[in-house]
Amino acid sequence: MKIYKQTFGDYAFTFLNGLFFILFTLLCIFPFYYLFINTISDNTLVARGLINFVPRNIHFDNYVSLLNVRDIFQAIWITTARTVLGTIAMVLASAMVGYLVTQQKMFARKFIYRFIIITMYFNAGLIPWYLNMSMLGLTNNFWGYIIPAIVQPFNIILVKTYIESIPGEMEESAFIDGAGYFVVFSRIILPLCKPILATIAVFGAVGHWNSFIDSLILMKGDPRIYTLQHKLYDYLNYSSDLGKLFNQGGTLTGEDVAAALNNRVVQLTVAMVTIVPILMVYPFMQRYFQKGLMLGAVKG
Q: For 129-169, how does the pLDDT look when each residue is reduced to its tens digit (9 = 90+)?
């Protein structure tokens, strides 16, 4: 067997390739690092924009003070409940619909599947969507977060493609033994679909956790069901309004300035608290994520 001897060009390419990805990784990590060091540094220095690379006068009072922010725990609870319930409902619906559209005996199977796909590309727009949600009673209603996001066409496509990669003989043998569709789905198909279901679960959890447009538009009348992202948006707007007043020559009292400084710290701290939980999902789901996404893309 001929042994390939690496040349200087091979070593140079390996070095430059590694250097590029190290720099790219640092570039991706830096925003999170910058956010974190600003939450643990002296608040006065943070407000003056003097914390860029190294934390100064380290403390964790901001995270303790976050306990006193009004309605923050209610927002965390709403966001967590939305993420858990919404993800579970979306995964189950995607699995069921994805399985149904693989069954040749299903009535109008092709029409239903194509109709679902069409909704990925065409929608009525924001105003008709809001009017529809209002008529359905989903404004100022927690279920307005869950119900509209249950059916996700892209996830259904992934599940359908994955199920089609499972040998059909497994279903046939179960049917011969007297099993019905529900038994086949729950005892054979569902366990085999764990990789792709974990993949779409990551998609769903990230989407629910980061979403705030629906909260901003649909939940205006009930602050008790604001999401964490909506609260962060409010903090950003509050500081922006004070900044505009200052730039336009308005009069800011000492209490206003203190509130603005404190609000900036709250922004950074809430942003950090908002980011960390969803980042922790990926290490546990990574192996399922890669496997499921690749296998779900083998056939169309």
A: 889 899 998 889 999 999 998 988 989 998 988 888 888 78
CA distance 94 to 200: 9
Backbone angles phi, psi at 280, to 5 degrees: -75, -15
Distance CA 218, CA 144 (A): 8
**CA 198 to chain centroid:** 13
Integer Cα distance of 33 and 55 in angstroms: 10
Range among 152-166, 172-186, 249-263 rated most confident: 152-166
